């Protein structure tokens, strides 16, 4: 069979110029998150298929790249379903693997545990421009802390990082699943319908208040409930202090302390902000993943028309592995989106030192070449990046190419070099 | 189905202590190889199955983790063989993907191209202590340079790196497939038998000269050939200058310039060494991969009883993709082995700054917590790693745990903090 030059459909080769930006951003992520006390960890890229298909991953579970059983365990001619031939799969996020990791290793980890993960995930999405089937995710999570200090640290760390990357004026939207549910309960929706209601609510920024009201009615929800629900959102828009309004309105419906906690989180993150951004309570923020149990948040950037980071509290997932609930809260930045924005902006990685290219005449005697190499050694030890290369026939073109790679200085060495 | 806490068989979770060492080594690899002008690149972790099964990968092709086709392309009940249900697989090395990458992108890359790759590879090996089914490889390759400058730069860069990691006294063994073949030809072995002869020769350090001679005879090779062959090795051991001996002996059998090139490589690398090691011509060095076409090399460390790095020239692989031969030479370090040695040695990562842990009394009012967080912000901006955590009931145990994580200083904040 002929060999194919192209990468696997939907995946991409990364060229040196992009790789420089990625390495720079990865370095900044490590430095920033470590300064907040997060520990870098890693899990394997594959997980047992039962863990990936445990309904924790929502829609992503439909997109798993599955791995074939091997050796004696594989019987293809008799196989009827995927389950007969598959034993593991590629991870589609870093949250399910982290929960398994914590269950497996918690005895050796501090409590609470602050984890930083950077790694590839795989999703067999329909290939489209700018979206790939292998992409990097970058998550921070705090496990074992039920207090709102977890949310504050996650938001402070993430906004600090975005600031260091040169972004400002972005918007951190904040909500709580318990408030979402209380607003639905107050309006008279049945608990079994919440998910459907929230899917429609999630369209607010596209179809507006009237659109949401219309779609709720079309889906057969009672007029009373829809009216009360939309009334809440309308009044929230007018309220001078929307959290105070809800605290009063939902008294007895939402658990005590939930709204006070939100106020603490918003106040603390604002007061210690290290770059310019807005942090707002957004009662229409839903976040797709069904595993969220408390606060949910998302960072939006105008220049992108989309989200560059998202996260929330998922206090019940680790219990699925251990049988014992562990509070957990995480924030994931859209690494690939950030790289795309930086590349489009023409972002230049700050150079840490000079770059020189040595061009050597072909056929140079070995004794002379040693002298050139000794020179290169000396300069490299002094922190200079030195490329040693044979001189091409078209020296001018060679230099132009090397200039594109950032080589600003050239030295030419001929056979008579002393 | 119950969720499993363990990672996939043969793969491992990486704890924070090991991850610190890995991150440190990765940083040093990048810094060192970049100073030699290598550009960091990345390919997807999956490749089309036809590329992985092209006989370039030798024995590793038997160990591929294969990925199931998805959606409409998959028909399990009718499938008879793996080929019916599989379209790609996990890479088992970084060399086949690099060749594909170069074929796909060479128009956008400088010539020659010096590539640095660090990434996971997967092999469904029989699980055993210290060997994993997912592991990191770290390769440097020079593409488009047929001269021995490529070998010199690869060896200098790799030995410089090992020196920076604190290793010394290691042994770089060096040979050339063309010398290996010429010695076999000179002895009268048929070309079709070379691979079998080399597999037996490869056992020299385990079974010795007599063992090799006996096994060659047992395998039915002519007594004359075996005798001549073993005679060459015996005389090489005695020769004061083994390359000069071979140059004379193999005159007309080995291509002109091959041995002179080896002498240049050995001389140049020795003369510009940046740490203490020995570099020797080893006529028994074989290296398993059939794709090697010229020089081959391997670094051995006494304290390991094994190889920590290996590589060679593979001038014909890229032509399999492009139809046009491109000279290529690479060196791969055994990243996981190096990490294992460092961990066993109790290697401590040099700390770049102080680490402080702030412990906060539970129930602290929001206004007070903001003051503590502002304090943390100030210290973080000054380059200190600050962990902010709620105070646990058992404060003494909490501090002991944090000390293990490298936190040397503690600050306690109570509700009355001003």
From TrEMBL, chains A, B:
Its EC number is 6.1.1.21. Pfam families: tRNA-synt_His. It is an enzyme of class 6 (ligase). It catalyses: tRNA(His) + L-histidine + ATP = L-histidyl-tRNA(His) + AMP + diphosphate + H(+). Residues 1-350 form the Aminoacyl-transfer RNA synthetases class-II family profile domain. One of its GO terms (molecular function) is catalytic activity, acting on a protein. One of its GO terms (biological process) is histidyl-tRNA aminoacylation. The keyword Protein biosynthesis applies. Coiled coil: none annotated. L-histidine binds at residues 93-95, 123, 137, 141, 287, 291-292. GO terms for cellular component: cytoplasm. CDD domains: HisRS-like_core. InterPro entries: aa-tRNA-synth_II, aa-tRNA-synth_II/BPL/LPL, His-tRNA-ligase, HisRS-like_core, HisRS/HisZ. The keyword Protease does not apply. Keywords: ATP-binding, Ligase, Nucleotide-binding, Protein biosynthesis. NCBIfam families: hisS. Belongs to the class-II aminoacyl-tRNA synthetase family. This is Histidine--tRNA ligase.
